[in-house]
Amino acid sequence: MTTYDAFGSAGRTLAIVGTAFLLAGCTSTVPDDRVTETVTVTTSAAGEKSTVAPSQPDAHQPALQTVDAREFSSPQHDGVFTWNYSTSGQYRGLCVSDGDGVTCTGRPAASVPDLTQHFPGRPSAIELGTAGLRYTFVEGVPGGPGSLDAGHRVEIGNVACERPDGSALTCRSGANSFTITGPGQEITTSGTVLAESDYSNHSMAEDGGETSSRDRAGTSTGQPSDLMGATGLVGGVRTSSGRLVTASAPPCDGRGILILDSYVEALNPQQGIADLLDAHPGAKFATPGQCPSLRASLDGARVYPIYTDHGHDTAALCRDKAARGGNARLLTQSAEYIDPC
């Protein structure tokens, strides 16, 4: 019990004793069906007593239980946190944080423009960091080790995400925030929305300060940091000859490719992919699981295929395999690894 003292006119002391509530951001131990206490007011001059109703808690500020962020630590990537969420629909959403910000999957409004750079098409996620919000994508990331459930919140770095009820997810950083609601996981934003090409949320630490896990993974070898997504997914690399190679997105229409090698993600994935492209001149690389018939991960680590695309010319595909080795594969919507040769 906590006692609050205030002084009224003529020196009369007002002693109010009520239930102590924890501030927002801490775990509340008060159940939703709490019993309303009466408050007794006593004046010292005449000993008069009266009963008044206490102020009711704001119905729009539910007490949320704070979850330890370590519960969402990615088993595959040190310093990365991932969790699932649901907003009452059949689709399960995914959030990923590298400690500097957070990116969550969802559906943007029709007024949001398509992405036009490294992964053209409709954005499938919203990114939030200290600089603002940015529409982006999340691909090839395994599901989280846990879910952020209704009534829970989590804080990671400068970002706080919470589930006030079963139909919404809200994440905030400073004056910027986004909310994802409903069965269709619609995204709404408040604050500064950055351009697709604006990577201000991922600026490098200066003066010897700490860098994020994304910086450690993508820039220590001189690779283009703007082609590393917030989730650590590689969007492009630079080979030793200086050639910039961006991740390709071949259609899953039954075409045949020759997988010359595969990069199983480890430290400095951009450099690892670039080294394999150097070893196979003219080859491309695709994001993990671009088609269901491509392996997305191995023992929890993402897999990037290094390949040549032969379209629907099966004869040319098999000649290339006979000359260079590798694995021929049909790109289909079925999770079957089919070699037509």
Main attributes of the structure:
five-stranded antiparallel beta sheet, 341 residues, disordered N terminus, 3 helices, 3 domains
Question: Can you give a write-up of this model?
Answer:
- It is a single chain.
- The chain is mainly beta.
- It folds into 3 domains: 2-52, no CATH class; 65-200, no CATH class; 234-330, no CATH class.
- Helices cover 8% and strands 30% of the residues.
- It is built from 3 helices and 22 strands.
- It has helices at 213-218, 269-279, 314-324, and strands at 2-7, 13-18, 39-42, 49-52, 65-66, 81-85, 93-97, 102-105, 125-128, 133-136, 152-156, 159-162, 168-173, 176-181, 186-190, 236-238, 244-246, 256-264, 284-285, 297-298, 301-309, 327-330.
- A 6-stranded mixed sheet has the order 5-11-12-13-14-15, with no helix packed on it.
- A hairpin with a 2-residue loop joins strand 13 and strand 14.
- H/E order of the elements? EEEEEEEEEEEEEEEHEEEHEEEHE
Percent of residues in beta strands?
25-35%
Termini distance? 77 Å
Low-confidence stretches: 1-58, 204-220
The geometry reads as elongated
In total, the number of domains comes to: 3
Number of strands: 22
* Number of helices, where a helix is a run of at least 4 consecutive DSSP H or I residues: 3
Provide the structure class.
Answer: mainly beta
Radius of gyration: 27 Å
Report the helical percentage. under 10%
Main pleated-sheet profile? 6 strands, mixed
Instruction: Provide the spatial order of strands within the biggest beta sheet.
Output: 5-11-12-13-14-15
Mean residue pLDDT: 75
